[in-house]
Amino acid sequence: MQIRSFLVPVLGLLALLGLVGHAAAQSGTLALDTKWHAMNNNFSISLPSDWTRDVSDEIGNANAAFTAPDGNLVVGVSAFAPGEGWTFEALIAEAERQMFQGAETVREQEVTLSELGGIMRRYDMTTQDGPMMTVAVYLDAQSQAFVLWAVAPMAMAQTRMQEAEQIMNSFVFNGAPPPEDVLTPPVLAGLALSDGPRTAAAFPDSAFRLPLDADRLFADLLLIGAGGPGHVGFDLVAVETGETLWTGTQAADATAELTLRQTLPRPEAGWRRGLYQLSVTWNGTLLGSRMFLMEATP
Questions:
Q1: For each of the chain's 298 residues, which pLDDT tens digit applies?
Q2: What's the rounded Cα separation, in Å, for the pair 126 and 18?
Q3: How many Å apart are CA 224 and CA 252, to the nearest integer?
Q4: What are the sequence ranges of the domains in the chain?
Q5: Superfamily (CATH) of domain 13-173
Q6: In degrees, to the nearest 5, what angle opens at C-alpha 200 toward C-alphas 294 and 218?
Q7: What CATH architecture applies to the domain 187-295?
Q8: How many CA atoms lie within 13 A of 45 on its CB side?
């Protein structure tokens, strides 16, 4: 399990819930086949593609709730920038006041998730739908704070919280500051998309509309700055669904000026008409992104 204690070995989320040792029916492993990127708040989380989602992502404030098809498990994440003078204890108190009012704290332990330290608590609460079990993970990222949570009926908690564990453990925070000895990333001075080979020595213009029948796409990059040796990362996302269609990396040595080309393969199910976004990173730091539209050829 990726959620782990600072102080003692953790048996898993079910240990916190008090369910270890119970003869619970085993839930199936979820297919986390899509990913929601909160681009404005530097994190992502994976979930099954058939779950419904209610999401918002504004600078300094993101909220998402993902609901299983049967409605018996909801997993969510909130992110915000607390501002000056806040404390981690005040964050937890405010989240409990807004989200878990009237709930009873049953267990608590210190955890880390995506290299962020925090607190995980289990609550028991009663709603109009009956007794519920709730788990909340509070994470401190200094300039940002996160609350991951899951709610399921008490009668189903032994199995449904295993599914919640999978989703919560897929949380990735991308905004951690790099080590002091890491060179400043290069600047992405150019990012051009096309469906064919380059025909000129000059850096190409980027196309916004690209044909649905393209076997592959190409991304041309222009990097400026002494970033040194590293890896350029690529993340291709369908904007309307949030699904990650492809990720890749390419080793590079950014000295003064560097151009490189990356092939973007056609998805297995083919291109679908709509908006896509290609994000580019350098050793995990986001350099920039570009959106484009796939549409039928006239």
A1: 333 322 222 223 334 444 333 333 344 578 898 888 887 788 899 999 889 988 888 878 889 999 999 999 999 999 888 777 778 888 888 888 888 888 888 889 999 998 898 999 999 988 887 888 999 999 988 878 899 999 999 999 888 999 999 999 999 998 744 444 445 778 888 898 988 876 555 666 777 889 999 988 999 998 887 666 778 889 999 998 888 999 988 888 766 788 888 999 998 888 999 999 999 988 778 889 999 999 987 6
A2: 18
A3: 12
A4: 13-173, 187-295
A5: Mog1/PsbP, alpha/beta/alpha sandwich (3.40.1000.10)
A6: 30
A7: Sandwich (2.60)
A8: 28
Residue 288 corresponds to which tokens in the numbers above?
Answer: 């920039």
In angstroms, rounded to a whole number, what is the distance separating the alpha carbons of residues 76 and 161? 13
pTM of the model: 0.54
Q: Which residue matches tokens 């909130």? A: 78
Tokens of 52: 């419904």
Are 13-173 and 187-295 equal in CATH topology? no
CB count in 10 Å sphere of residue 186: 25
- As a whole number of angstroms, the distance between CA 145 and CA 113 comes to 12
Query: What's the Cα-to-Cα distance from 194 to each of 48, 171, 268, 293, 294, rounded to whole Å?
Result: 31, 32, 19, 11, 11
Q: How far apart are the first and last CA of the chain?
A: 51
Residue 256 per-residue DSSP state? S
72 close to 152: Cβ distance less than 8 angstroms: yes
Cβ pair 164, 153 in contact under 8 A: no
